Amino acid sequence: MKKTAVNLLATAAKITEHWSPRVVGEVDDSYVKIAKVKGEFTWHDHQEDEFFMVLEGQLTIHMEDHTVTINAGEFYVVPKGVMHNPVAQEECTVLLFEKKSTLHTGQVQADLTKSISDQLQPL
Amino acid sequence: MKKTAVNLLATAAKITEHWSPRVVGEVDDSYVKIAKVKGEFTWHDHQEDEFFMVLEGQLTIHMEDHTVTINAGEFYVVPKGVMHNPVAQEECTVLLFEKKSTLHTGQVQADLTKSISDQLQPL
Is the ipTM of this complex over 0.90? Predict the structure, then answer.
């Protein structure tokens, strides 16, 4: 059991690559992740819901029938099965909450795809 | 499906009672909750892990063998089965991530206990 709290922005500051989520905690069968993102990701969906909270910056999530903008201090849950493509004009730091089974780019294999073992690399 | 992001602090500003978590989102079989807390809660444990992130203020979580202080922008996960008692000297706003099955005060029935239906009241 950890004995101290985790500072999200201080931990995110160690991330050097965009669109490369890193696991910073686990809650039962889910992972807490942080990511730095910039530019456009890729269209994909998941078999699980995906929680996005913006810690710094602004994230836009395009979905097939609408678009959501998430500012710092806000969250949005992309429901399972909904195709989505996150985009950040400027660098943005995001907190993610996902089932351990969630695949980074769903069934899509993209250049940006990170495996769970990539995401589990300690910061 | 919601069409906009949720601002956590703006939503928390509608909460008028301490230690009364309110559900603001769901992610598969978990709830996203926010709570305003002040003073001492009560010793209890859960059958599930419990994620605490402080949005404003400072939360101290006493456990049997150690104590963790969580400042704004930090999180801590209390593992399942670990007795804990949260305390906030000043008012503090907290984001919680918990399984839908998680009972507010575990098996303890306290004056402060809120049912899941209490927690599901819309803000």
Answer: yes
